[in-house]
């Protein structure tokens, strides 16, 4: 003990002198100068005092004032100055991987260090931190998983929860856990940071914790709404292209329907605005098919037009464009590349900013472009608060963000771009006034803005809660419903019940809501329960190689590209991978394995090009597979000495069965009709397939069932990625694999037998049962 103490003391003193050396160096001086110019610096002492005097403090301040990069550093520096550098442990959570990585890199640089020394980061499945890392930036999920094994956060001195105004599900969850932990750890300090001024909510949740505000300075930003944008940029809304008329008309109708379903006030405001502005001319182009068509996406042509207007007529300054998603961003980027002015690299630099970009690309976003070149950054709502690009003078705001919502009544998640809140619109606008007065182009009419909600609703109230419920159980936090009722804003009881039912169905919880062995393993894997189940079964049944590809594909994104102008060719290419296996998942395995082979003789890119595949996504899948493998080794599910699992089974039927085990109860029955295929699920009745599914191109599916990964409600319920399975696969692998034996398992499927009334299923069931009985008797 004494020796240890002495070592730590020496380390602390060492840290102090290192810090001093850096601050005295020329580069360090420059950095200090920059850091002192940030608004947070003026509040440094007040903040530190409040933190030392109170267990919980809520800090708010304009984005860019220095909360994320400075406040954790202030705490760290003051600990170092007090010779506690080697004993403090500061954790700062971020809602997104990319911000955890970017911020830690920045903070390390500000301290004149490399990442992994005293500053590190940890995000799902990767991270850089060393033995001496004392300031750790991690995603909220990582901290939650640490709580699994370390319920009291032993050794942690400060927890900083950033971006709480976003009200993400993990953050709300973490707050319930921390609230319960604080009395047990009176020395632990909790700091909550928010970009907006709704601090009261959080303060009162923690019994009236003190609130501190960092006053920031931003330059005024002029807001333009659609009405005057059209006038100013002389944009002519053109009538429909005659050839496209039908498709557009149809989309247009769906769009109106979608609006109608929303809050009626928004709907009517939007419709009025659409009438007056003649939105019909808005040319909708997305990379996606009709079913995935994003009914709310903004016309790319209008964005292009405004960008052109800025480049031709306005002062220098970077442009930040807020869009809804990765697909749209890439699609617009391609469109701009073909433009005579915007595609000219000597004059314009177009960058995409999204969660999965490489860090070299990331740096370009912060860097000043060469003289005479205008930087245009296409971003999702991530750039609203977690990332600050200083030289932005112009903001283009499409008014939408992709938001998961959850229809508890139908137990169906929906992912739709929806209107942002007034707070978010204000936030986006503010991004233009960092260094000089700016301009913001809101691509929607003023009356639409007026109808926006004040704040976005918390994620806990609009997403499926399965993973969360599993976590509550594995953290031994008691009854799920009781626990969630203590949230800042508790979710609906029906949503909670649906999640519990799901976990019982897949066998992660038993009848009394206790964690089963499977549930226990699942909570340890950082993927959704259904994907975790596939990994576990893939290990047990020794067919992990293809299963890891399927799981990686489902947790990254689809590598099959859907170029809007070559959709047919792309669909054909994809269906060739399926080779009449009637499975999108097996097609993915095939495509991935082909790519691996092509990589061996350096023709990976050509292979991707030929087959409409995204090399970037395949690479991501590849690295995720490696991570899964080492993770499964760590958890002891596969043999430690095994170097690779490529020699394991690739048997299609086995793989199909395991996919079925994971995706159950996502199952629909297949009825081949004369000219079409009729698909039905128990909850929704008739459902449709996304047009890019290999099964959507088949005139007949010679299997009685399809298991699917995801259904999304747009105007109808659509199934994404599906795999055909047989009766016996469903009977043997659907539902829980329980120790209770096959018999109990088969009984559980009675509901299915009754509902679908498939004679073949009943036959297989009886047959299996008979065999089982014979087996028991012998
Ligand atoms: P807040 O959390 O209050 O929004 P930050 O601490 O993220 O503010 O940012 C403070 C300042 O540091 C901003 O001016 C921002 O531009 C700058 N900054 C943050 N990250 C980087 C980076 N990676 N490179 C350069 N400057 C950065
Ligand atoms: Mg921040």
UniProtKB/TrEMBL annotation:
Which Gene Ontology cellular component annotation is one that this UniProt entry carries? nucleus
Presence of keyword ATP-binding: yes
| UniProt feature coiled coil, ranges | none
Establish whether keyword Magnesium is in the entry.
no
Question: Where would I find the Helicase ATP-binding domain in this sequence?
Answer: 48-215
List the Gene Ontology MF annotations in alphabetical order: ATP binding; hydrolase activity; RNA binding; RNA helicase activity
The protein's annotated catalytic reaction(s) are:
ATP + H2O = ADP + phosphate + H(+)
The enzyme's E.C. designation: 3.6.4.13
Q: What class of enzyme is it?
A: hydrolase
Q: Which residues form the Helicase C-terminal domain?
A: 302-476
Q: What keywords are annotated for this sequence in UniProt?
A: ATP-binding, Helicase, Hydrolase, Nucleotide-binding, RNA-binding
Record family assignment: Belongs to the DExH box helicase family.
Name this protein carries in UniProt: RNA helicase
Name its species: Nepenthes gracilis (Slender pitcher plant)
Taxonomic classification: Eukaryota, Viridiplantae, Streptophyta, Embryophyta, Tracheophyta
């Amino acid at each position: 003990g004494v020796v240890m103490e002495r070592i730590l003391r020496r380390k602390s003193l060492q840290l102090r002198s290192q810090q001093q050396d850096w601050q005295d160096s020329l580069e360090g001086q420059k950095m200090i100068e920059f850091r002192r110019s940030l608004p947070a610096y003026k509040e440094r002492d007040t903040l530190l005092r409040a933190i030392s005097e109170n267990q919980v403090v809520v800090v708010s301040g304009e984005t860019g004032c220095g909360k994320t990069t400075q406040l954790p550093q202030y705490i760290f520096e003051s600990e170092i100055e007090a010779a506690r550098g080697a004993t403090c442990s500061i954790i700062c959570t971020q809602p997104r991987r990319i911000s955890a990585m970017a911020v830690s890199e920045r903070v390390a640089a500000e301290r004149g260090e490399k990442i992994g020394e005293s500053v590190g980061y940890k995000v799902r499945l990767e991270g850089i931190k060393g033995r001496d890392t004392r300031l750790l930036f991690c995603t909220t999920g990582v901290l939650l998983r640490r709580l699994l094994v370390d319920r009291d956060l032993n050794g942690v001195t400060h927890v900083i929860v950033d971006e709480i105004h976003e009200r993400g599900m993990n953050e709300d969850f973490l707050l319930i856990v921390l609230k319960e932990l604080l009395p047990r750890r009176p020395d632990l300090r909790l700091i909550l940071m928010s970009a907006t001024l709704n601090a009261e909510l959080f303060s009162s949740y923690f019994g009236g914790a003190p609130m501190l505000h960092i006053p920031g300075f931003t330059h005024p930003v002029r807001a333009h709404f659609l009405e005057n944008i059209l006038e100013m940029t002389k944009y002519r809304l053109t009538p429909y292209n005659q050839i496209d008329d039908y498709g557009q008309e149809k989309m247009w109708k769906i769009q109106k329907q979608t609006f109608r379903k929303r809050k009626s006030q928004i709907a009517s405001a939007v419709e009025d605005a659409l009438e007056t502005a003649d939105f019909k001319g808005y040319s909708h182009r997305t990379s996606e098919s009709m079913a995935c068509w994003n009914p709310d996406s903004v016309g790319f042509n209008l964005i292009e037009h405004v960008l052109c207007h800025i480049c031709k007529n306005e002062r220098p300054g970077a442009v930040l464009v807020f869009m809804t998603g990765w697909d749209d961003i890439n699609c617009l980027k391609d469109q701009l590349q073909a433009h005579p002015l915007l595609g000219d690299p000597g004059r314009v630099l177009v960058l995409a900013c999204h969660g999965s970009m490489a860090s070299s690309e990331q740096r370009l976003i912060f860097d000043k472009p060469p003289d005479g070149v205008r930087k245009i950054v296409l971003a999702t709502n991530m750039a609203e608060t977690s990332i600050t690009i200083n030289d932005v003078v112009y903001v283009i705001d499409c008014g939408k963000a992709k938001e998961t919502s959850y229809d508890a009544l139908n137990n169906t998640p929906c992912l739709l771009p929806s209107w942002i809140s007034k707070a978010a619109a204000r936030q986006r606008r503010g991004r233009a006034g960092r260094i000089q007065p700016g301009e913001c182009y809101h691509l929607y009419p003023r009356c639409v803005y007026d109808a926006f909600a004040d704040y976005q609703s918390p994620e806990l109230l609009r997403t499926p809660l399965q993973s969360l419920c599993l976590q509550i159980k594995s953290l031994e936090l008691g009854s799920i419903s009781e626990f969630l009722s203590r949230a800042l804003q508790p979710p609906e009881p029906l949503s909670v019940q649906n999640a519990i039912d799901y976990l019982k169905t897949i066998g992660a919880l038993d009848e009394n809501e206790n964690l089963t062995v499977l549930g226990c393993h699942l909570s340890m894997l950082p993927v959704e329960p259904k994907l975790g189940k596939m990994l576990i079964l893939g290990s047990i049944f020794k067919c992990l190689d293809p299963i890891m590809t399927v799981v990686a594909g489902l947790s990254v994104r689809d590598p099959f590209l859907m170029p809007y102008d070559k959709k047919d060719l792309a669909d054909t290419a994809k269906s060739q991978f399926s080779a009449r296996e009637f499975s999108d998942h097996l097609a993915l395995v095939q495509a991935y394995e082909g790519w691996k082979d092509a990589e061996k003789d350096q023709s990976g890119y050509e292979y991707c090009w030929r087959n409409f595949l995204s090399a970037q996504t395949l690479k991501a899948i590849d690295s995720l597979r490696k991570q899964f493998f080492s993770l499964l080794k760590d958890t002891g599910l596969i043999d430690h000495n095994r170097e690779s699992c490529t020699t394991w089974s690739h048997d299609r039927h086995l793989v199909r069965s395991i996919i079925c085990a994971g995706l159950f109860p996502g199952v629909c029955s297949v009825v081949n009709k004369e000219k079409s295929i009729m698909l039905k699920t128990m909850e929704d009745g008739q459902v449709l397939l996304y047009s890019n599914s290999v099964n959507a191109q088949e005139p007949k599916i010679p299997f009685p069932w399809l298991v699917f990964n995801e259904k999304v409600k747009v105007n109808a319920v659509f199934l994404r990625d599906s795999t055909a399975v047989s009766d016996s696969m469903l009977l043997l692998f659907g539902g829980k694999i329980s120790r209770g034996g096959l018999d109990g398992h088969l009984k559980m499927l009675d509901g299915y037998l009754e509902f679908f009334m498939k004679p073949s299923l009943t036959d297989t069931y009886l047959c299996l049962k008979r065999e089982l009985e014979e087996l028991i008797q012998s």
